[in-house]
Amino acid sequence: MEHKSKSTVRRVGITDVAKAAPALIPDAPKMLKGAFRLVTVTGSTKNSLGLIFQKAAAKNPDRPFLRFEGTDITYGEANRLVNRYASVFAQHGVGRGSVVGILASNRPQTLLAALAAVKLGGTAGMLNYNQRGDVLNHSQKLLGSTVLVVGAESAEAFESLPRDEVEGAVIGLRNGDTTLDGANDLDDLAEGASDANPAECAEVTASDKAFYIFTSGTTGMPKASTMSHMRWMKSMYGLGGLGVRLSGDDVLYSCLPLYHNNALTVSLSSVLNAGATLAIGRSFSVSRFWDEVNESNATAFCYIGELLRYLLNQPERAAERRHKVRVIVGNGLRPEIWQEFQERFGIDRIAEFYGASECNLAFVNALNIDKTAGVCPLPFSIVEYDQATEEPHRGHDGKLRKVKSGQPGLLITKITNRAPFDGYTDPEASEKKVLRDAFKKGDEWFNTGDLVYKQGLFHIAFADRLGDTFRWKGENVATTEVEGALGSYKGVDQAVVYGVEVPGTDGKAGMAAIKLADGADLDPKGIADHLSDSLPSYAVPLFIRVIGEVEQTSTFKSRKVDLKDEGYDPDKVSDPLYVLAGKDKGYVEYYPEYADEVASGKIRV
């Protein structure tokens, strides 16, 4: 599979490693310790998130563990409250293998309730408090909870559920002075409960389930992926120990939702790995972000790529340079804005990583090399794939074929006892993600569904989701590359790219839905020239739709399904619509004959 582009894929070589090495010397002991633990932990290991938290509390009881809106909770205080919550859960039948569903917003009590569940050997099912009705009902029924904790602030979401279908005993979680109507309150029940460490915590093994994390549901119903204690610990040792490398006096700020792995796994594990402080933001606010970072005295923060782009699009202000942040950790930072972001905001180190809720391993930019998602010491491969079937391509011998360095391919990760695939609650959905006999008989690999670039020296860079890539003029078009080119054009605030059918042609033509910045007008010729200079000709979108807002999931993933369905049908699209008339003319207003002219070859683009 060949991919041509005017943008150069970042290659990683020995020179890059040599340049990075001197800055790594002070952190070398942490990195070696993290790497050793990463490759030696197994499912039979008697260790877990609950036990790690418990030991951190015993070691540093007076150190701040959680910081929220100006208030600190120490490790010791948090552990005692977690134990009281665990005592309440146990009285309601929660034990090893049970599920505690949690429907509550970002605040300390939400996280402490999750820790109480895992201390008992239970699984915390982290529900998306933005869901309603059928979608939320589908999610909560997947959990089969013994106890369902509902925050008072999530009363509206809870009321959207058919009451006779709610799984588990409902316990409210007060929010300030507000309690959940018709339910006992967790804090009231915890008054006078034992604050001793539950005996069950020491018996939990790494193979036990810690969390259920739901997919974002950009299409179809959400699936609940399993996060075992082993995978959580691998994040702590790999992302935390190798990549983020905090110290005990560090503060990591996270405003991402606690039902998202970047908060619950990446942020929390990085903090507990060092006995540091986690500052929880109620939600992401682009106007308040730097103020909240500064108010919490954060020295690190966790991100999603879109979050960083929103910050970069804001006017410069003094608060963005007053911060103490030296390292950030997250995924999805696009290479075209990497350097600009780092220089504008004065960030020393970017620990970009690649991972997914269900993936059995992760990559992390431990060496602080720009424009890469980093390395992984566990087995993986990048293979050719069939664009039509979206399946890995097998040769005449039935085996998969690896791509060459610098090319994109489908990332697959080897399933082993040190890197097991935890799967979903649905066994059939889990089985669909497993590739068997990939390179030799009996081997098993996890199909990530992601296209990545092979950069060299075991480094990768994210390219696209397989389902988002489309084929036009015999070439594969990566939507992220086109979105990046559009996002770098003045006046474009957000862009979503997808493929649409043009009758009489092969493949799908590119279409972009763009939101203009406040006060900006579309320059049809200017944007056409910019895209022509930035992209190969086959990747330049034929259609541009100007929209008022890019609808997104709560984890900053754009909802493309409706946009794809509407395409360029004038009966469905009332927004301004433009079509590419040629390199000289640029974009012009849509006219009904355009698709036929493309199919007939009258329009050559």
UniProtKB/TrEMBL annotation:
Keywords: ATP-binding, Ligase, Nucleotide-binding
Taxonomy, superkingdom: Bacteria
Entry's Gene Ontology molecular function annotations: ATP binding; long-chain fatty acid transmembrane transporter activity; long-chain fatty acid-CoA ligase activity
Domain (AMP-binding enzyme C-terminal) ranges: 481-557
Annotated transmembrane regions: none
InterPro entries attached to this UniProt entry: AMP-bd_C, AMP-bd_C_sf, AMP-binding_CS, AMP-dep_synth/lig_dom, ANL_N_sf
SUPFAM superfamilies: Acetyl-CoA synthetase-like
Any one biological process term the GO annotation gives: long-chain fatty acid import into cell
GO CC annotation terms, alphabetical: plasma membrane
AMP-dependent synthetase/ligase domain span: 53-380
Family: Belongs to the ATP-dependent AMP-binding enzyme family.
Name of the protein described by the UniProt record: Putative fatty-acid--CoA ligase
Source organism per UniProt: Hoyosella subflava (strain DSM 45089 / JCM 17490 / NBRC 109087 / DQS3-9A1)
